Amino acid sequence: MKSIKNRILLLVIGFLLLGITACGYKPSSAMIKNIFADSVYVEVKVDTIEPENAPFVKDELNRMVYTHFKGGVVSKDQAESKIIVTYRGTSFGPLTYENGYVVRYRADIRVKFDMLTKQGKFTKSISARHEADIQASSFYSSTLRTEAIRKGLEKALNEFLAYASAKGAIVEKKGLTSKK
């Protein structure tokens, strides 16, 4: 009985593996390799109004290069590809009022990505939104504001990753990949 279950399990796993490999699935890192080289320089232009967000963006982008691009972050003069991120500000708008006070708001975060890739120069502007509840305390409001900006920046970085993957897929489909 146990032998039959093991055989069925192996058969199911085999079909799953065959299905995944037969469909031509490629991870986003394979698509990104079509436009970004292995050595990437990352720069974050600091916003003078909210400089505390620059280290967060830099760390997240570095992590993205290592984990999703499967590349390394290097100095500017050693880099074959470059990503320059400019945080262009955040605007807040009320969504819900309760007894005359704002209890829910939306943060609109604007980020610009300038890229120097194997395929040339690209610029991508991204606007990300984050909605959150707000409390009456000014301490909590300040903390929630910073958290909302960071969550919005995280969304913008994820959208950038999707953009880079899609751009890489287009390059591959057109046969423009340069093997380095």
Characterise the protein shown here.
With 180 residues, the chain is an alpha/beta fold. The chain has one domain (28-174): 2-Layer Sandwich (Double Stranded RNA Binding Domain), CATH 3.30.160.150. 43% of the residues lie in helices and 32% in strands. It is built from 4 helices and 5 strands. It has a 5-stranded mixed beta sheet, covered by helices on one side. It is extended. The N and C termini lie far apart (53 Å). The model has no long low-confidence stretch (mean pLDDT 84).
CATH arch. level architecture: 2-Layer Sandwich
Contiguous low-pLDDT stretches (5 residues minimum) are: none
The number of domains: 1
CATH T-level fold name: Double Stranded RNA Binding Domain
- Helical coverage, percent range: 40-55%
Shape: extended
CATH class equals Alpha Beta
Radius of gyration: 22 Å
**How much beta, percentage-wise?**
25-35%
Order of neighbouring strands in the sheet with most strands: 2-1-3-4-5
* Main beta sheet: 5 strands, mixed
Please state the structural category.
alpha/beta
Number of helices: 4
- Tell me the distance between the termini: 53 Å
Mean of the pLDDT scores?
84
Instruction: Give the ordered list of helices and strands.
Output: HHEHEEEEH
- How many E strands? 5
Query: Any idea what the CATH superfamily is called?
Result: Lipoprotein like domain
Keywords:
extended, Double Stranded RNA Binding Domain, 43% helix
Give me the secondary-structure topology.
Blueprint: H1 2-22, H2 28-32, E1 39-45, H3 54-67, E2 72-73, E3 81-98, E4 101-117, E5 120-133, H4 138-174
Parallel strand pairs: 1-2, 1-3
Antiparallel strand pairs: 3-4, 4-5
